[in-house]
What does this fold into?
Amino acid sequence: MDPDLSAVDARLDALDADGYLLDADGTDPNQQYLSGFDAPDPFVTLYAGGTHLLFVRSLEFGRAKRDARADTVERFVDFAYDQRLEEHGRREAAAQVRAAFLRDHDVESVAVPPRFPTGTADALREQGIEVVVDHDDAIEQARAVKTDEEIEHVRAAQRANERAMAAAEDLIRGAGVDDEGRLVHEGEVLTSERVREEIEVTLLRDGCALDETIVACGADAADPHDQGSGPLLAEEPIILDIFPRDKATKYHADMTRTFLVGEPSETIEEWFELTDRARKAAIDAVEPGVTGAEVHDAVCDVYEDAGLPTLRSDGSTETGFIHTTGHGVGLAVHEQPSVSQRGGELEPGHVITIEPGLYDPDVGGVRIEDFLVVTEDGAENLTEYPVELTAE
Amino acid sequence: MDPDLSAVDARLDALDADGYLLDADGTDPNQQYLSGFDAPDPFVTLYAGGTHLLFVRSLEFGRAKRDARADTVERFVDFAYDQRLEEHGRREAAAQVRAAFLRDHDVESVAVPPRFPTGTADALREQGIEVVVDHDDAIEQARAVKTDEEIEHVRAAQRANERAMAAAEDLIRGAGVDDEGRLVHEGEVLTSERVREEIEVTLLRDGCALDETIVACGADAADPHDQGSGPLLAEEPIILDIFPRDKATKYHADMTRTFLVGEPSETIEEWFELTDRARKAAIDAVEPGVTGAEVHDAVCDVYEDAGLPTLRSDGSTETGFIHTTGHGVGLAVHEQPSVSQRGGELEPGHVITIEPGLYDPDVGGVRIEDFLVVTEDGAENLTEYPVELTAE
It folds into this structure.
């Protein structure tokens, strides 16, 4: 896939910079997008004059020439690194070869993303190269608008995600309950860890990796970023939030469901219904030209009308709706655009989550998350998974 | 575990900085080490006056107060973020609250690691805070010397690693060979992908995660960073390089073995014996006070004496021994100290790999990697796994 870098070209014009420079390893989504190359250690990618140039250590040279989306691949040794090292030491030598590489391509000034390393920036500045921070991160902005091919990648990751969710739901719904109210599977207490393993193994067999999965019950579930641990309990909502990365394409999916075994309390039942209503209201609001802020407002309206606090009504609340409505998903699991109080206009090709939720340490947590692509005239929900608190 | 930060204290004195500042998410090993906190989005940790301070968004506040290695946790809202946002916009507001947080703790100058984000550094400088890059990365240096507890963590990860290697070796050694020379398991051609899945599932069930695993055969194996793909072949060396992370402790292990089904060529047999000899020579050389460069020299000597090129004898060679001898392993899979031409003195508590190897696209690749801890009087090999090219 060749990315559409017109946003980056425009930014270079606006910042009056000769090229766009990255210095990051292959886990960095901007680096993946611009270089098309994966390496465990940081390497340099320069985008200048419409061409992609990679600057790597010898170890990565052959693979970079073969795999990278690069017109040219050059090496430290091509710029007399060893001699410079001998003469000037590691830090100065690294700065000199980077500056020499840039000047060799007529680049005297570079734009860099906000998370570009300060060590490299300061070193280049000492070599007389101008380094301007592109605070709006043109590459991340370019990444936000997905091509049809990228949408197929996230769709495929979401299918795998749904198979993993189904495996986890089967475990939970099929569990018995012991006399302490804990879920039991095949004679053993069912834990967050056991369900997480089921999810992870299912995803692995489907070619997906994931660093974290949330399987949180009771007080754990009241903290949106708590991964959860220990026994799962009947009559308590259990939040499952799964966000795998397809290992081949590197694109992510993201989905959350809340399950409960037994009889929910009135509060949980009400929270679940409200949250599902908030989800639908947000999805209905999504279309090109609408802002992320307006979609977020649709969720806050539902909760506030029901008398529940949100960060919009009280910026320091620790219960109620205490996060944003959603975020972009792609090479990163959290990326642009933001579906929040500060979210800008949605465009066709944006892939976003809609994930309203309610939290209180005394009650637990409820969250429902779907995963959509903004289309020319609205949105397509990429999630094909039922929304049910209890078993039918 | 409370890290020993005396190296950081000394660096702050040397750089005349009031505090050490990080701005990174929970995947950053320095952040893990200093904050003891994990979050998916970047957060700020300040180490000043011997105390740890975290500066987080509201969403992470409760969990940070509970989990982080922090004397104090503060939030953006504590510094009037919303009002500043309204008045000055996102970028200026973020810079102002960070500067206000620092000044509230009497910090006017900060040291930052080389990969600290330039966007944050420049913004703080605009607010009058002095930002000095600590090019020698005192936190990474502190991380390099492991406590007994950390050594137990890497040892535990290595035990899991060996179970995964054994599962993969069983698959490969137990395979048949079809008439095209491909390995066959239970009637299906055995691929890199299938062996990788076996490794990953075994590790997952042992509480370990991994982003990548190398299972590379033939020409793939001739590139040290190629992950490998497709059918595995008899009479070709197959390199398995596994570097999992224990999900609970976040510490890594690292080991490589090379297996061959059938009869090896004379070249491969010679390469394997040389590489094992290089491995032993390097391990014998490891003790406190010896430099990483001397250990690396021990490997280069073995190869060069046999007439094979190394990067020491020819800095631009693409065949032979084309990488360094090893690296530190801990919260990062690649960290200090370096066991290379530029490696400094080894100290007790350093955990390093020793991984000589030979590569040529026309022959394939051979690599053997053990994983050691430097002790008071030598080294302990943390690897308990046989070194055998073919089945006994």
Notes: Residues 207 and 248 of chain B are 7 Å apart (CA to CA). Chain B has a mean pLDDT of 94. Chain B touches chain A through 53 residues (CB under 8 Å). The first strand of chain B starts at residue 19 and ends at 24.
